[in-house]
Write a structure and sequence with these properties.
Blueprint: E1 6-8, E2 12-16, H1 21-30, E3 34-38, H2 49-57, E4 64-69, H3 74-84, E5 88-91, H4 97-101, E6 107-112, H5 123-126, E7 132-136, E8 163-166, H6 174-181, E9 185-188, E10 193-195, E11 198-199, H7 201-218, E12 220-222
Parallel strand pairs: 2-3, 2-9, 3-4, 4-5, 5-6, 6-7, 7-8, 8-9
Antiparallel strand pairs: 1-12, 10-11
């Protein structure tokens, strides 16, 4: 295949569980692709729509805002959409495709890989309208952000959508995680924190640097012949 049909690989980066405007500023300066705001009721990083509104306004152009839910009711999701204007929704609970797609925004569906792990063999059929998936280390019914990883070899090889790796990632292991899984994107929360919801600028910087080094080590990806 000629070089014109190959492009440098770029792993997408999402920083999740942001609660402070200074952390949003660092994330934007580092060029991350998305930041996540958590509205799940049991999360230690939970924020209200009113808290997030100024953080959302501080985002640079082309940095996506992700609103994360876990079995929240439809009224809460709509309130967040009206107040925060997220780019994409992310669901971590027992929500089905009809519920996730009912709000008229793209959505990611998290797949719990902790414990016995969730069914991942028919994700495309069960969540036909999902934009992508996120494989996380929490067990079914539990919230994420635990700081623990899972066995990456259990990720389905034929995932029908782009997918992000989450759970236990930090600046010292994300390089190997990308090389081992060839994931489309990485999602980090506790691995770049000094306390729940409070990000550490140095860890954020080291994490992004490690992702970029991994991309350089993995090399290039093949593109469609149409390119």
């Amino acid at each position: 295949m000629s070089d014109v049909n190959r492009l440098p690989r770029r792993t997408r980066i999402k920083f999740c569980g942001l609660t402070r405007i200074e952390d949003v500023a660092v994330a934007c300066a580092l060029g991350v692709d998305a930041v996540g705001f958590v509205f799940a009721e049991r999360s230690k990083r939970r924020v209200s729509p009113a808290q997030v509104a100024p953080l959302r306004e501080a985002l640079d152009p082309f940095v996506a805002s992700v609103a994360l839910f876990m079995d929240n009711d439809a009224a809460t999701v709509r309130e967040v959409i009206d107040t925060v204007r997220p780019t994409i929704l992310q669901f971590h609970g027992d929500e089905d495709d009809a519920f996730c797609a009912s709000f008229g925004l793209p959505y990611l569906k998290a797949v719990a890989m902790g414990g016995e792990g969730a069914r991942a063999d028919d994700l495309g059929a069960r969540y036909a309208r999902a934009t992508g998936f996120l494989f996380d280390s929490h067990a079914a019914g539990q919230v994420g952000g635990s700081g623990h990883a899972f066995d990456w070899t259990r990720i389905p090889r034929d995932c029908p959508r782009p997918w992000l790796l989450a759970g236990g990632l930090h600046p010292d292991n994300v390089f190997e995680a990308i090389r081992a899984t060839y994931c489309w994107g990485v999602d980090v929360s506790s691995g770049i924190e000094s306390a729940p919801g409070e990000k550490d600028a140095a860890k954020m910087h080291r994490f992004v640097e490690a992702v970029r080094r991994a991309d350089a080590a993995v090399g290039t990806i093949a593109t469609h012949d149409a390119l």
